[in-house]
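Note to self: the last two entries modelled the partners one at a time, which told us nothing about the interface. This time every component goes in together.
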Amino acid sequence: MYRYDEFDRQFVTQRVAQFRDQANRRLAGELTEDEFRPLRLMNGLYLQLHAYMLRIAVPYGTLSSRQLNTLALIAEKWDRGYGHFTTRQNIQFNWIKLEDTADILDTLAGVEMHAIQTSGNCIRNVTTDQWAGAAADELADPRPVGELVRQWSSLHPEFSYLPRKFKIAVTGSPNDRAAVKVHDIGLRLHLNDKGKRGWEVLVGGGLGRTPVIGVTVRDFLPEQELIAYLEAIMRVYNLYGRRDNKYKARIKILVHELGADKFRAEVEAEYARRPHADTKVEERELQRITTYFAPPQFEKLPRWSATFEEARGKNKDFANWVRTNVAAHRVDGYAIVSVSLKPEGGIPGDATADQMRTVADLALRHAFDEIRVSHHQNLVLPHVRRDDLFAVWKILNAAGLAASNIGLAGDIIACPGLDYCSLATARSIPIAQSISRRFADLNRQHEIGPLRINISGCINACGHHHVGHIGILGLDKKGEEYYQITLGGSSSENASIGTILGPGFAGEDVPDAIEKIVNTYLARRQPGEEFLSAYRRLGPQPFKEALYAAA
Amino acid sequence: MPLLKNGSIVSDDWITLGTDDPLPESGDVVIPYARLLKEWESLTDHDGRLGVVFTNIDRIEALTLFLPRLALIILPFPSFTDGRAYSLARQIREVGYSRELRAAGNVLPDQVQFMLQVGFDTFEIGDRFTADVWLKASRQMSLAYQRGLYRPPGQQEVWSERHREAEPWLEQPHAG
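The predicted structure of the combined assembly is written out below.
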C-alpha cells in the first residue's frame, strides 16, 4: 500500500500545525465561529448534537494494522472506546473535544493519516472498490489513481470553496462495487483492444434530496489526461454551480439545469483553453505511486485447500459464514474475507477498540498487513490463505465479528441519525437494530438471499436509502418520526433509484412493513431469483398491495 | 483601505469610480467591468492607468480584448465561502494577464495562501487583523501537490520536486 515520502509527511505535519494555530485563535476568540467553521470542517471536525465529531480519512478505504491500532488508541484515549465506520470508507469519532483535536491529528500524522477534507464544501475522500487489488473480476487495481486524486485534491487552492461538497469514486472492475454512478464524479476503468487504459468519466450522479444517476461525459479518457480533465470539470462547477440555495448546489443540479450536452460543451471548452504542459509529470507520478500497490508476495498454492474443506464440512456456522463473508480472490489458494460490523441488534459500522485490534492483528498475521473499509460499513481482510480461513473465523467469532450476513438482510447500512447528527430529522440506529433483530434467524436470512437495506435519518441520504433494494428514510411530521419506504434501488453498474411505495410508517411498525415486503418477494420469486431482479420483474404493485391493503 | 502586497502593508492609490461618477482628467482609476464595456472608446485615451472590478458572474472571454490596457483587476469575494474568484483568478492568469490582481471584499487571513497560489498579488485587508497574523497565515503550508501554482520563494510543488532528478532532458547527452 501507499507509503508517505518526506513530502507527504511534511505536508500533513504542516497541516496539523496550521490547524492547531487556527483552533487556538478560535479558543482565544480571534476567529468567529462562522470564520472557523469551514476551517475545522476541512480538517474533519463537525459540531454535532452533543459534542464535536472527528471524521478521519481512510483514502480509498485502505488501512495497515499499525493505522488500525492507532484508531483503536484514539478511541480509547480521546473518545468512548469505539469508532464508527462510514459509507465514505472513513471512520468517525463522536465524542471529541476541540482542545484535543490537534493532538489527535498529530497522532494520525505519525501513522500517515489525516482528516483533511472529510467535510466541508471541497473534494472529499476518494472512495473505491473495497476488494481492489484482490477481486477476481478486476481489470486493474484502481487505488493508484485513487491516491493520485487524493494528492491532487488535497488543499487544492482553486477548489476548496466549492458551492457544495464533492465526491469522487473510482472502480477498476466491470462489477461496480464503488457506486460510481451516484457520485459527483465517477471514474470507471476500461481497456481498449490494444490493452491501453482509459477512464470513463461520469458526472452529476448523487443521492441527497435529488437522487440522480450520473451521465457519461467521456467514454475513454486517456489516463495521462485525467487530472487536467478533472480540473476542467471542477472549474465549470466552481464557476457556474448554484450558490443561492444549498439544496441545489451539487453538480448534479448544474448538469440537469444546463443539460448534459451543454454541460459537456462547457467542460470541453474549458479543457481546450487550458495549458496541459504539466500532465507529463503526473504520468510519472502515477508510475511512482503504482509501485506501492504492487501485489503482495503471494505463495503458489493449490486452488483446493484440504484444511478448509474439512472445516467447512464439520462446522455448520463456519460453512454459513463462508457462503456470505468469503469471496473469490484473483490468486489461487487465497480468499477475500469480509468482517461484518453488523451483529444482531448492533449499531451498523461501530467497532470497539478491542475489535479494531483483533482485526489489525489478523491482518498482520494473515492478510499481508492490509485492511479495507467498505462503503457498506464493514471491514475486509483482502488476502487470506484459504488454509487459514477457519483459524481467522474462530478469532473473529470470539470477538463478535463473524456475523454471517454480508449482503443479506442483517447487513444494514445506516447513518448515525438523530442519535448524533444535528441535521437528522429521525433516528436511524434504533430502526436498524429492530430490523436486525427481526431477521436475526440466520437460516432465514440465507433463505431470503442478497438484500440491501439502507436507512437514512434525513433527506441528505447519508445512509444511501435511494440505492438500497429496500430504502428507509426517516422524516419528521409535526414532531413525530415516521419512515418512508422505497424499493428497487441499486448502486451497482446497473444503478437505479428506488421508488417510494406510499405513505410512511411509525418507527415501531417498520420491521413489520419490511417483513411484509420480504414475504411478498418470497411468495412470488422464481427459482434462483434475487430480491432486486424479482422487484424489477414484478414492479411495485404487489408490494404496495401487501403493505397498504385494507386490514 | 490598506492593501497587503508582497508581505507588506501598503496604501491604495487608485481612484475607485462607480457607474456614474465623472471620470477625472487624469489619475489611475478603477471602474466596474460593465462601464468598461460601455465606455471603452473614451477610456482608451484616459491619462492614467486603468483598472476594473470584475464580478463573479462575468465571463472572462470578452475581458481578454481589454487586457493589454488594464493595470489592475479586482475580484470581489462577497463572502469568503464563495470560491468563484479563485477560478476566475486562474483563468485571468492563464490568458496571460501579468499585472496586479487584487482580492477584495470578505478577505480573511486563512484564505490568503490559496489566493496567492491562484495568482492574486494584492489583498484588501481592513484593520481587524495585525500584519503578523496576515503574514503567518499566508505561509503556513510550504508544499502544494498541484502544479502550475503561483508561489513565493521557499514554497515547493510536491509533484515537481519528486521528479526533479528524473527530468528526461537531463539524461540526454548535450548536443553541442
